[in-house]
Amino acid sequence: MAHKISGGCACGDIRYECSADPAFVAHCHCKDCQKASGGQMGTFVAVPKAAFKLLAGETKSFAYIGDSGKPLQRHFCGRCGSRLFADAEILPDMLFVSIGSVDKADWLEPSMHIYTDSAQPWAHIPEGATRFAKMPT
Ligand SMILES: [Zn+2]
Ligand SMILES: [Zn+2]
Fold this sequence. Notes:
The chain has one helix at 31-37, and strands at 5-8, 15-18, 24-28, 42-48, 52-56, 60-65, 71-76, 83-88, 94-98, 112-114. It has one helix and ten strands. The relative contact order is 0.24.
């Protein structure tokens, strides 16, 4: 039985759910996640796009070219600005849902740190954690 993930933005305009188990959960230390999140890193849960459904509201989005050289689209709430998910052409069947937007994320412990090359020197990466200097290979 798949765990259902539900979530939304801070103001409540946008709600979503996903009916499939997540593929993986990761902390991303790339510069872009730092900028876009306003924090030391971005943390996301990768879910199959086919199982993801917007229940309420419409996202605004911002497109740019990711580190991979492929287009990426970040979706957020146009009213409160909460980041919701990203859609990357490099993995077209997946959506990368911002973990802070998930209603109940206590069971979604990230299994890896990626883009540690650009991590802040004071970022805490636990001893023995799985890490990738850039994208996982
Ligand atoms: Zn909102
Ligand atoms: Zn990133």
